[in-house]
Amino acid sequence: SQTIHQWPATLVQPVGSPLSLECTVEGTSNPNLYWYRQAAGRGLQLLFYSVGIGQISSEVPQNLSASRPQDRQFILSSKKLLLSDSGFYLCAWSATTGFGYTFGSGTRLTVV
Amino acid sequence: GENVEQHPSTLSVQEGDSAVIKCTYSDSASNYFPWYKQELGKGPQLIIDIRSNVGEKKDQRIAVTLNKTAKHFSLHITETQPEDSAVYFCAASITGSARQLTFGSGTQLTVLP
User: Fold this and answer.
1) A94 vs B42: CB contact, 8 Å cut-off?
2) Does B106 lie at the interface with A, CB-CB under 8 angstroms?
3) In degrees, to the nearest 5, what angle opens at C-alpha A61 toward C-alphas A58 and A65?
4) Cα angle B62-B82-B51, degrees, rounded to a multiple of 5
């Protein structure tokens, strides 16, 4: 069966520090991968998606970047965090031939 | 692009009553409509989904209906229980290789004991 791992679960970082969040998927190949942010309230904002290694599409301009160095690995990064980067970050995957997303457990990022 | 509107934003029901959450979408090309449940501090979990060639789907106490003509779909939860309390999201998928989902804004459901 397929599983998605996301870490760390919580993170407190000072303003101006770098960020690296990692997401890996097991039990499938060539998944579509996604990063979402959920700020205060409930909305899910799509940040990046990837349909293959090295292929990254950005949905909104921001202080963040994403990379996909391996088929089942998706990384969210920032060189210098801003206070506004605080939020709940969710990784998700979907099959290219299937429907629906499966979300990871999320990372609670607090920038102080 | 696709736009999904979800109502109500908050919903309180007595335990044992039914709850209905409604969503509308804008793009007639959308053909997949999942519903997610998100508990506090956790990632959203898929609870039921429906494709555009089906008008209704049921799974125990949960059902989803789809009206393609009116471009709206609804989640129905019967015999609600306190553990049903969570935030619920609807979503719509525009066909394409990335299978991007557009989410509604969420409904906070509270089941009162």
Assistant:
1) no
2) yes
3) 55
4) 20
pLDDT above 70 as % of chain A: 96
Contact A42 B89 (CB under 8 A): yes
Report, as an integer, the average pLDDT of A10-31.
95
One-letter amino acid identity for A59?
Answer: E
| Distance between CA atoms of residues A62 and A10, nearest Å | 21
Would the pLDDT of B4 be above 70?
Answer: yes
Contact yes or no for B86/B80 (Cβ under 8 A): no
The interface residues of chain B toward chain A in range 30-69, judged by CB-CB distance below 8 A, are 32, 34, 36, 38, 41-46, 49, 51
Q: Give yes or no for a contact between B64 and B76, defined as CB atoms under 8 angstroms apart.
A: yes
Please give the pLDDT value at position A77.
96
| pLDDT score for A97 | 59
Whether residue B95 has pLDDT greater than 70:
no
Q: Quote the pLDDT of residue A86.
A: 93
What is the pairing mode between strands B45-51 and A45-52? unpaired
Identify the closest residue of chain A to B34 by CA–CA distance: A100
Q: Does A83 touch chain B (CB under 8 A)?
A: no
